[in-house]
Amino acid sequence: QVQLVESGGGLVQAGAPLRHSCGDSGRATSRYAMGWFRQNPGKERELVAAITWTGSTTPYADSVKGRFTISRDWVKNTVILQMNNLKPEDTALYYCAAGATTRQWDYWGQGTQVTVSS
């Protein structure tokens, strides 16, 4: 039983930082891989970053390298996406996900909109 709840998002100015977090109601995802995806209408969902339950990360999407950081808070059982120096092209609906591995996503958050103005 996994329910992922996301918090964060909103309207921000270009260059601003934003902290996006996601977690479940308990500790069901404590040994799941966690990831962040984003999607815009008419486009495929893009993997932004992912992290295993042991803390290993996958390569970041090229468009966010050097600006975004994924991490886990092991006490709160949440995954965090720290977004720095946001750009208008980062505007998207962001989803967190959980799965057995970083290649298998079984649970999804509700999605939160991030809009970056220039």
Question: In DSSP terms, counting alpha (H) and pi (I) runs of 4 or more, how many helices?
Answer: 0
Cα-based radius of gyration, to the nearest Å = 13 Å
Strand/helix succession = EEEEEEEEEE
Q: What's the number of extended β-strand segments?
A: 10
First CA to last CA: what distance?
A: 41 Å
Low-confidence stretches: none
Report the principal-axis shape.
globular
What value does the average pLDDT take? 92
Strand % is over 45%
Helical proportion, percent range? under 10%
Largest beta-sheet characterization: 6 strands, mixed
- How would you classify the helix and strand content by structural class? mainly beta
Write the layout of secondary structure elements.
Elements: E1 4-7, E2 10-13, E3 18-24, E4 33-39, E5 46-51, E6 68-73, E7 78-83, E8 92-99, E9 107-108, E10 112-117
Parallel strand pairs: 2-10
Antiparallel strand pairs: 1-3, 3-7, 4-5, 4-8, 6-7, 8-9, 8-10
Can you tag this structure with a few keywords?
mainly beta, four-stranded antiparallel β-sheet, globular
Descriptive report:
The strands form 2 sheets. Strands 2, 4, 5, 8, 9 and 10 form a 6-stranded mixed sheet that branches. A 4-stranded antiparallel sheet has the order 1-3-7-6, with no helix packed on it. It has no helices and 10 strands. It has strands at residues 4-7, 10-13, 18-24, 33-39, 46-51, 68-73, 78-83, 92-99, 107-108, 112-117. It is mainly β and 118 residues long. The model has no long low-confidence stretch (mean pLDDT 92).
